[in-house]
Design brief:
Elements lengths: L1 E5 L3 H13 L3 E5 L2 H10 L4 E5 L7 H8 L7 E5 L4 H9 L4 E4 L4 H18 L3 E4 L2 E4 L4 E4 L2 E3 L3 H12 L5 E2 H8 L9 H16 L5 E3 L3 E3 L2
Parallel strand pairs: 1-2, 1-3, 3-4, 4-5
Antiparallel strand pairs: 6-7, 7-8, 8-9, 10-12, 11-12
Helix pairs in contact: 2-3, 6-8
Length: about 220
């Protein structure tokens, strides 16, 4: 799974990242509510682990603003143990609530639980014309025929398909799919290669280029 951790305490943030990466998850981590909200609104995550007390914008406000546009599963993680705080978090759309200190095993179990509940509500098969994108099986079919896609080609197709009708900037694609590339790699040309390969498989009109802006799947 791809997870976002929003936690201002550096030691705990590092512990959470290590714990979740050891479980095989891809993890992004930020230290304040403003950056956390930006990430949560503009990236696709399976679960967000959100601290309630954050600089810039507290976790409850992050959650309230996020729920206006996104239903990403959220596990609130906070030192607040008052009933009113738990009720506030759940009323604003948290899927679960865990207070500090916590057992690592319980944290992992709760993340799995909210991910399953979120998975029931999220769109697993995306259909665009004759193209069918199965995000669970990581398979793409066109007119019923299964096509071969590399993992990164699939990730790019899924990113654009989930935002169909919206222009996705090259910068956002770089941040989500190419942030692990070496500085020596010409990422701009690499993205052009992936777009070209996908168009070969799905047709030149499947992904439209918006000059100077980004790419669009209608």
């Amino acid at each position: 799974m791809k997870l976002l951790v929003v936690e201002d305490a550096a030691d705990l943030r590092a512990l959470l990242v290590d714990l979740l990466q050891e479980e095989g998850h891809e993890v992004d981590a930020v230290a304040d509510g403003i950056e956390g909200l930006y990430r949560a609104q503009n990236w696709d995550y399976d679960v967000i682990v959100l601290d309630g007390m954050l600089p810039g914008l507290d976790g409850f406000d992050v959650l309230a603003k996020l729920r206006r546009t996104r239903q990403t599963p959220v596990l609130m993680l906070t030192a607040r143990d008052h009933t009113r705080d738990r009720v506030r978090g759940l009323d604003q759309g948290a899927d679960d609530y865990l207070t500090k200190p916590f057992a690592n095993e319980e944290l992992l179990a709760r993340i799995r639980s909210v991910a399953r509940r979120g998975g029931l509500q999220s769109e697993k098969v995306l259909r665009i014309g004759e193209v069918e994108i199965d995000t669970g099986a990581m398979q793409v079919r066109a007119a019923g025929e299964k096509l071969d896609f590399t993992a990164r080609e699939f990730a790019l197709v899924e990113l654009l398909a989930r935002r169909r009708g919206e222009v996705v900037s090259r910068e956002r694609i770089f941040d989500q799919l190419f942030e692990d590339e070496s500085d020596e790699v010409d990422i701009s040309n690499l993205l052009d290669v992936y777009i070209y390969k996908i168009r070969q498989k799905l047709g030149k009109d499947f992904i439209k280029t918006k000059r100077g802006t980004g790419y669009l799947v209608e």
